[in-house]
Amino acid sequence: QNFLFNHQLQAAEQKILSVGATLQTELSLLNSSVLAELDLVSKMEGPQGPRGYNGSQGDKGETGADGSDGASGVSKLNECDYDSHFATSGNFLGATELDWIRPSEANHTMIGVHCTTEGGSYTELEHRKVQDVSEYRCICKGE
Predict the structure, then answer these.
(1) What pLDDT does residue 55 have?
(2) What is the rounded CA–CA span in Å between residue 115 and residue 91?
(3) DSSP assignment of the chain, as one string?
(4) pTM for the predicted model, two decimal places
(5) C or N terminus of the chain, fewer CB within 10 Å?
(6) Closest-CA residue to 111 (of 87, 139, 88, 77)
């Protein structure tokens, strides 16, 4: 009987070990599945939060003192000149042509030139190069 009991005990122990191994495998697979789902969900974008404040909350502070002018930058815009040329004409049916204009100094470049008219219906900006220097003039036409 002792032999039979030992044999039954060993069979039960093997059964427990087998069920334990199966349970361990199933739990490991389930754990991997849960971790994969959690990883997927954690990368999903959530809902937009409330708008933040832009400083409009609270009382306005005192205005500070004006600072001094800064140093000239690379572009040296403080060396730019602004110039206007005007002409009028009593010839309402013909064209009014302004004289050709060019930069006042050889190393200067004109970066903005345009034509306008008061009472006319058409303006044309002409451009030409004379000795490698750009020159411009306006032609205004119509009433």
Answers:
(1) 63
(2) 18
(3) -HHHHHHHHHHHHHHHHHHHHHHHHHHHHHHHHHHHHHHHHHTS-----PPPP-S-SS---PPPPPPPPPPP-TT-GGG----------S-SSSEEEPPPB--SSTT----------SS-SEEEEEEEEETTEEEEEEEEE--
(4) 0.42
(5) N
(6) 77
- Buried b or exposed e, range 70-95, using 16+ CB within 10 angstroms: eeeeeeeeeeeeeeeeeeeeeeeeee
Name every residue whose Cβ is closer than 8 Å to that of residue 38 and which is 6 or more positions away in sequence.
Answer: none
pLDDT tens digits, one per residue of 62-86? 888 888 877 766 666 667 777 777 7
Mean per-residue pLDDT, 39-53: 81
Measured distance CA(22)–CA(28) in Å, rounded: 10
